[in-house]
Amino acid sequence: MQDKDTLTTNAKDVIDEGVEKGLSRLTPEKISKVINQVLTKETGARFKAYVETCMRCGLCADACSIFLSNDRDPRFSPAAKVKQTILEMIKKKGKVSKLFLKDAVRIAHAECNVCKRCSMYCPFGIDIAYMMLLVRRICHKLEITPLYIQDTVNSHSATMNQMWVKEDEWIDTLQWQEEDAREEFKDLRIPLDKDGADIMYSVIAPEPKFQAGLIYQAAVIMHAAGLNWTMPSTPGWDNSNMAMFTGDFEISGRIAKAHYEAAAKLHVNKIVMGECGHAFRSVYDVGNRWIGWTMPPVKLVHAIDFYHDLLTSGRIKIKEKYKKTVTLHDPCNVSRGRGLHEKAREIVNILCESFIEMTPNREHNYCCGAGGGVINCGPPWKNTRMVNNREKKEQLERTGAKVLIAPCHNCHSGLEDIIEYYGVEMEVKFFGDIIYEVMEKEIYQKRRLK
Amino acid sequence: MKDEKSWDWHSGKKEIPVKEWQNRFNWVEEPYVSPDGEKIASIVNTDEARFSVCVNGETWENNFEKAWSLKFMPDGRLATLVSNDEEWTACVDGVSWETRFDYTWDLKFTPDGSSIAVAVQKDGQYGMAVNDTIWDRLYENISGVVLSDQGTSAAVVQADPLGQGDIEGFSSGIFCAAVNGVAQQEKFMNIWDLSFDSKGKQLAYSIRKNRVDYSISRGSQPWKKNFQFSWKPEFIDKENSVIAPVRQGGKWFLFKDEAPFWNKSYGQLWKLAIHGNGKKIAAVVSDNFGKWTVCENDETWNFYCDTIISDLFYSDNGNLLIAVFKDKGLWDIAVNQKAWNIRADKLWSPVVSRDDTIVAARMEKDGVFYLVVNGKVYKEYFDMVFEPQISPDNDKILLKTMKNGIYSRQILSLDKVL
Fold first, then answer.
1. Fewer beta carbons within 10 angstroms: which end of chain B, N or C?
2. Up-side HSE of residue A394: CA atoms within 13 Å toward CB?
3. What is the rounded distance in angstroms from the CA atom of residue B40 to the CA atom of residue B23?
4. Which CATH architecture has domain A10-145?
5. Structural fold of domain A320-437
6. What is the pLDDT of residues B295-318, one digit of tens each?
7. What is the location of CATH 1.10.1060 in chain A?
């Protein structure tokens, strides 16, 4: 556990090789050209309304867990982040210095989770996350995006998945998990490219790369529920999208296209996606709309919705409730972004004996601190992130729970970092972990015939 | 190649019981049906970690530790990818290729069945194998595998190694197209959407030149003009031209050889369909956010849907332009701007008769499957309908179905259906 005194850090001192090299190549002409191009050609009435409406009332400040984590330093309030970045760019007509841009990268990429909590507290509903993403768009075009997340986006662009998973590695991993899961169900399959299946199950690339057990668990749940499902062997299987968070909208659109075209090619009724929040935001709200699909062209179901249906319909039965006391972290993108928080609570109550609410909760919950691509900026920014997550740490500790359910990959990783860094005695789990642990391992149709 | 004239177009109904296979094997995977409807096959599990293929009730003599990607070829042969002793290869009608790989995937064929291709990995290097012969040169990685109708193989390959987090190396351009294993000279930051000309001799594709500039490359020659983005190009062979959807000023345009080709611009434009050496060119377009239609020769259809147009193609004669689309959550087909209004839950791309008078598709509605012809749903429903075929004389339909565990092949006269 770290002493509070050692947690102060000067984020300005962070050296990110990607940012530094990018800055070294910039000229004043290039800087002003890019900024003015984005501000004049890529924004419209929405941006103008936001810029002209903000009254600097400060109501957004207390909404920001990063502001709270930094002892209410006004520089960390959402309105101040806008003032220090995009407003200054407007005021100076793009004629800003490299030093200014270095600060802008830090503020937009490391000190804002684009979680949209502040928008709920703004009397005018100004979407400050949109303003920060606009800054990131400028950073993208200036090629000063932090190195680690840029490498992730490079992977997306070349492989259509975020972790450089090669095409054979993906399929081989599914077949390996299928083989292992046959220890539990002799005839279990992870059906590949099953044309006309009801469900295409999609995941994010860390699952085949590091957490293949989650695919195993999902396969067991699908099999036990007696579902007609499939996974694509082709690119499009990864529903994640870090390009959305670096302002690389073009690659973001291509990623969303690959995902939905994989589903359309398989003629499935719906896509069920694993427990990930940013990926949901990407395929439900952002990537699809850059393409021109106002809503997902194939029905999209987040894991929370899916598990809720399986548990309430009786397709998955619980053998014995989970004993340990749990608390629940509401991921921003599926709670504030989609309103799945009540269903999440119903799942917890079906699965677990004892549940302690986190406060604040539901759509008011604090971000995990990793979201919005912040964790993906990698090791150079980790210490900054930990300082900025102090409020989240205190929120977790107040519950007294020993198990923390976080139905989102980014949240999961970020919360694990907080727990390790601050020495919080908690274990983070996905819903899938708990369902797998407490479910009856029987196939639904067979059970129904008894 | 499909030789429809030699198929049995007279026998009425032929049945093969399939449900009993469940009793013979530990499990039976999803069935596949040959184009002529005479064969139905599944991968079957014969013992612990032992798999084979069951065709019309007969099991292949050899079996495998693993098998996947079962497909009937256009000429009726049956191919799959198989593994024994942790080595993978392709297997056609029970005969495995001699060459072995560490992994194989993305099984493809030419329309005449003369070439069979797979993506392969061997000793951590990547390439393709065609007709049991692996590319002479392998690469760091491979994606976007394609096979021309003549059997030319191509893919996007990573020509140079890339260290972890090496964004500078990535920006320098490490990807190129490789044709029959030979890397093209020019490397780019990204390459997508490989597209052959109709003779399989030339290749065009979308490229990314740097962080923000996208374009089209023809062979190894990139267009000089840069765009905000691009989608898959296509060749117009007669003119030796390349057309491509490109984005500039936030709008999508159709360009031909670096110059604007259509006058109108759109919020989205992709999925090009071409007939008659470019006499007819069509694309899926969106001229209002969330509203989709088709543009043909620079004129938009008097038709809109709100969700997606998944397929767009011309009939062989070019008289019909067919779109598979989804509107208000349900799938449908539009032929020459006119929607069928069948409102399906699932719908497959239709087949068209040689004289363009019959368009037939399979669809699912309320959990059962139907045949639909020229917009009329055939009265009988099934547990599964496989891709229908139309007789060369344009007056019969080969209907392939599954019901109560019995596979059925039947010939329907058109008057029975319409």
1. N
2. 12
3. 17
4. Orthogonal Bundle (1.10)
5. Rossmann fold (3.40.50)
6. 999 999 999 999 999 999 999 999
7. 10-145
